Structures are given as structure tokens and as C-alpha cells.
Amino acid sequence: MGTVFSLDVRGGEPAAVRAALDEAVAGLHRVDEVFSTYRENSQVSRLARGELTVDACAPEVAEVLELAAEAERVSDGWFSTSYQGRLDPTGIVKGWAVERAARRVAAAGASGVSVNGGGDVQVLGTPGAGRPWRVGVSDPLRPGGLAAVVSAAGAAELAVATSGSAERGAHVVDPRTGRSAVTDLVAVTVVAPRLTWADCWATAAFAMGSREGLRWLESLDGVEGLLVTAGDEVRCTGGLAGWLG
Question: How far, in whole angstroms, is CA 174 from its chain's centroid?
């Protein structure tokens, strides 16, 4: 998927956790093989060219496309799996894959799991007694700095996803025009229970711009956001402060 993944696992029976960890890593490689739009022979590339049907693909393809359709509905079309008229589900695949990897390891008995995929993080459980997972949010305008630190205290699961132009340039597409989104934002970070959705909502809110993006994030249950504009203005949803620390 063109990025670095890291896994931090605490507790559990070592052999069972190691086996689940190996399965999770193999699963991430499998996701890249199936969903990569850069691989000519991936199932998604062949599906986009009409060489395969969804039924002929791995079951995960139908699962991801159903989730993407729900994301498009909830975002009123601001999240889309269409790029220049071609199927491209990469906007949801990474978050879904990271979350799935984390849950696979947790199911093996680990008491705490953190999976980071290119800066998007899913945490489950805790890293130790009385200690919450804490996730740093990079400052898009000050390389090496932090815009915030999110604490998972009190949550059995929490995800943090960021979409923006600071590191990868203008890669978020405005689905209305099919071109790079032109907004006043440089980054949107979303905090939610599941990374599948946090990743989608960060992308959609970024494409909307700060005003509409903030209003929309405020309307979603269990979702908080931090938006940074090119003018170095920080805008937050009303409940975000409860997750900082």
C-alpha cells in the first residue's frame, strides 16, 4: 500500500499472539495484492477493466465496496471510490486493513494492540494497567512538531486518521470535479472508534473545506475532528477536548 506499518502488541499467550501477528502481517500483504491500483493484475485493477465480476473476486472485495457505498451515502458523495471514471477504493482500503489487522491480533488474546499504517492508527485495549494508548497528531505546518495528542483513556477501541496535503501533496480528489480538492485546509484529523470510518471521514471532510467539513463532522455520532487551515487556524469539533491528553 505504499507506506510503512507498525504493530505494538501487549499481553496474551506469546505463541498464540505471534501466530496471529504473522497472520495479520500476511493479511496486509494480501490486501495490497488484491486491492492495489498500481498492480495491473490485482483483482481491483481487473475489476475496473471489466475482466472480473465482484462475485469472482475475493470476498473482501465485496465487503470493502459495500463499506465504501455506505461511506459515500453518509458523506453525501464527498467520499467516492471513483477516480477519473475508474474504480479506485484506496480511500477506504488502508483504514479497513489496519483495523482488521488490529482486531485479528486482539482476538488471539492480546490485552493491548496498536496498529499504525502510514500515520493512521487503530488501538484496542490498553498498553498496561492504568495506562491508555496515546497517539500524536503531526503538525502539518511545523515538520517534527505535534498539533495534538489523543488519549484513548476510557475507550476499549479508538482510531485516529489524518488526511491532508502536507506530506503527500494534493492527492485528495474533489468527487464533483474529478480533480484535486481545492480547499482552505492542509489537514483534517478524525477521532472515532473504528479506523475504517475515521479514514473515510477525514478524506471527505478535507474535500469539503473547513467550514462545511467541521459542520458535517459535528453531525456524526461518536466522531470528533481537528482541522488545520493553510492560514494556521485550528478548528475543532465540540467534543474533541475530551480525547486530548
Answer: 18
d(CA 42, CA 64): 15
Torsion sign (Cα): 229, 150, 240, 124? positive
SS3 assignment, position 40: coil
Q: What is the DSSP letter of 144?
A: T
Contacts 24+ apart (CB under 8 A), 52-58: 58/34
Based on C-alpha coordinates, what's the Rg of the chain?
18
Alpha-carbon separation of residue 103 from 111, 129, 143, 193 (angstroms): 11, 20, 31, 12
Q: What is the pTM of this model?
A: 0.92
List helix spans (H) across 78-232.
90-106, 195-208, 210-218
Who has greater pLDDT, 165 or 241?
241
DSSP 244: B
